[in-house]
Amino acid sequence: MPAQQLTERSKDRVVAHMGLPANSSTAALMRKVDREDGLGVEFKGGVGAASGHVTTRQWITVLVLVYVNLINYMDRLTIAGILEDVKKEFNANNAMGGLLQTAFIVSYMIFAPLFGYLGDRYSRKAIMAAGVFLWSIFTLIGSFMSGRPEHLEKQWGNPDFWAFLGCRAMVGIGEASYSTIAPTIISDMFVKDMRSKMLALFYFAIPVGSGLGYIVGSETAKAFGHWQWGLRATPVAGIIAVVLILVFLMDPPRGESEGHQDMQAQTYKEDIVSLAKNKSFVFSTLAFTCVTFCTGALSWWGPVYIVDGLRTMKEEDRGLDTESVPFIFGAVTMMSGIIGVPLGMILSTKLKAKYPRADPVICASGILISALFLSIGMMLCSVNIILAFVFLFIGEIALNLNWSIVADMLLYIVSPTCRGTAEAVQILGSHAFGDAGSPYLIGLVSDGVFDFLKASGTVCAVAATEVMNSTDPTMQLAETTLDSLTTGGDISEDCTEEIVFKYQSLQYSLFSNCGVEVVGGILFLITAIYIAKDKLACENASSESKHKDGNCGASLMLTPTNYSPEDSLGDEMPSDDEEMPKLKLIVNDGSELSSSRSPSPI
């Protein structure tokens, strides 16, 4: 029967008039039923990704991705836990110390678009395995580098420092291959709430891995007596990750969870143009840039700043040993991630069903609350360190609300064949203007403010004594300090210890984060204006692509009588008491065959 053949060809078409994308679960919800007139559709329970069922292999894949993401962020911040030792090794100032992280992020963001393009078209498993192997090898090579005494006086011209900087840049290239691709694998295995939960688990590794980076870096260096050992833990874990990726990771067809596995990728130019027209993507990327700017500066300079704050206090008033700061800061960062990332996911899944614009509003609230609490916490570092850590902890929890939500927003406002490119563009933009420059800029500004404070004030004699006793091979700092003390005759009693100037200069520099966070909050609120419209546009674009590839002259559609763009954002099917949508048969000539028959849920 023609009608039966038409039904067979049409049962996997999208419910286009409802704004819902065609996916495997939608097809599974309907099955053909033989009726006297030869045409019928019946609903049945959802299976697969949409039903919440997760297979064993999917769990293994997610756990492998989480593990690699964990050691990824551990590797990024192991140097932050041993930064002072690295600076002494190469006789580096704050600007040079910040440049170590900037070089990593710059290479990371430059190569992200390349890997995003490749990830949309070639084997994601092979690309990730190669990338993880690359950064593991160069991290290990960097751990065998040291500063030769004859080069220490050169500072910026120190070839040993630039060789070490080059290794950090190569690590960034390797990590770019992983970070752009891994979220797209999760999006191709899960949809809706299950996708949000898995993304929360994946991004949960960011703050936890960062915290472990401080701890592993500082404690391993302390245990073995040299900072190089702090860099040798993650390469071993990286080689294990390569084996796990090659053996256990599954690489599902792109768009499989939404039934778009047959969609063909556009050209790279078409991808970029479509992303530029997507207002939600543009504004959420700009807002996320503010998040990365803050996290980059805080994660890199946080332990150094807190140690300087403690040193401005009398030893009996500190309440904490300076050597334990990296460990405690890492623990606080881990705990804030353990609480903040799942909390963001829970708020998103609970509120999004009723309020389609909830995601960007949650992100805006989180970053604005973070700006307040982080500012108070920084001001308390030289007054009460326990209270300072409490405020920093709350501020980091609020900041961590963003990670999984921003990733989830990108995946539901961008079509499946463009997601790798979108991830890469977001990484490029957010890191180029975020944490690529923030560690270096904070260090550069603090150096300038430090010189200004020293020139406009008087350094106490005790500071000169400490400097002369320090390991300064060039004695330039000692000579500068002595000159400032001897110029003008007698030493004034109204003097300031050099560590106070150092602490204040870094504090003034870090306060720039607060303004950036406020800008980020505003940009997230602007995103909320467009999010519902852009999600619907993404779903419709996927549906149109599916129709073009279907080679079918007609499609079976459900057309609700009362429909608005935001209806597509709900996650639930109509209840038994609600009026079910009518079936409508759309044929090539544009005519419609309507039926008053309502499908019966079973």
What coarse outline follows from CA principal-axis ratios? globular
Low-confidence sequence ranges: 1-51, 462-492, 549-602
Helix/strand/pairing category = mainly alpha
Write down how many β-strands occur, each being a DSSP E stretch of 2 or more residues: 5
Strand arrangement, major sheet = 3-4-5
Radius of gyration: 28 Å
Mind sketching the topology for me?
Layout (H helix, E strand, L loop, with lengths): L1 H9 L13 H6 E3 L8 E3 L12 H26 L1 H8 L3 H26 L4 H19 L16 H21 L2 H6 L4 H12 L1 H20 L8 H16 L19 H10 L1 H33 L3 H4 L6 H28 L5 H22 L5 H16 L1 H12 L5 H14 L5 H19 L4 H9 L6 H11 L11 H13 L1 H39 L4 E5 L22 E5 L5 E4 L7
Antiparallel strand pairs: 1-2, 3-4, 4-5
Helix pairs in contact: 3-9, 3-10, 3-11, 5-7, 5-19, 5-20, 6-7, 6-11, 9-15, 9-18, 10-15, 13-18, 13-19, 13-20, 13-23, 13-24, 15-16, 15-17, 15-18, 16-17, 16-18, 16-24, 20-23, 21-22
